[in-house]
Amino acid sequence: MAGKLTTHVLDTAQGCPAANMTIELWSVQAQTGEKTLLKTIHTNADGRTDVPVLSEAEMQVGVYELVFSVGAYFIQQAVKTDEPAFLDRIPLQFGIADTQAHYHVPLLVSPWAYSTYRGS
After folding, report:
1. Rounded distance, CA 54 to CA 4, Å?
2. What global pTM score does this model have?
3. How many CB atoms lie within 10 A of CB 112?
4. pLDDT-based confidence at 1, cuts 50/70/90?
5. What domains are defined for the chain?
6. Whose CA is closest to 71, among 111, 15, 42?
7. Per the omega criterion (within 30 degrees of 0), is the bond before 111 cis?
8. Distance between CA 110 and CA 96 in Å, rounded?
9. Spatial separation of the C-alpha atoms in residues 93 and 80, rounded to whole Å
10. What is the pLDDT of residues 54-109, one digit of tens each?
11. Whole-angstrom Cα distance, residue 83 to residue 77?
12. pLDDT tens digit string along 33-67?
């Protein structure tokens, strides 16, 4: 099995995929917490990325962080939120221990709540 990292975002407030959401991928030094931005991507019409966030060739053991720009997304959607927004940027930090495994990190989000899990 080829290892990879994928994600998708579902807008639970509107009951649809979260299209055109900006997502940053960071590498995190476990000892120091220092972060390095690896890439910035956007979701497609299905709330997924067109290519894996990390491909098989890019997979390395380590700590990573996906940062989802949900505040900007809900502004684009003209969803009524407070100013400042209750949720703006959601960081999800996780570890990759097996570079041959598929790590899927979905986000279910509204302007007021979110949840995640390790999917398949």
Report:
1. 5
2. 0.96
3. 12
4. low
5. 4-116 (2.60.40.180)
6. 111
7. no
8. 27
9. 28
10. 999 999 999 999 999 999 999 999 888 888 999 999 999 999 999 999 999 999 99
11. 15
12. 999 999 999 999 999 999 999 999 999 999 999 99
What is the tally of helices (H) and strands (E) in the chain?
1, 10
What does the block give as tokens for 120? 């398949």
Two tokens at 16?
A: 């649809």
d(CA 95, CA 29): 11
Mean pLDDT computed over every residue of the chain: 96
CB-based contacts of 91, cutoff 8 Å, min separation 6: 65, 66, 67
The continuous run of DSSP H or E covering 4 comes out as strand 4-6
How far is 77 from 86, CA to CA, in rounded Å?
Answer: 16
- What is the percent of the chain with per-residue pLDDT over 90, rounded to a whole number? 92
Contact 92, 64 (CB under 8 A): no
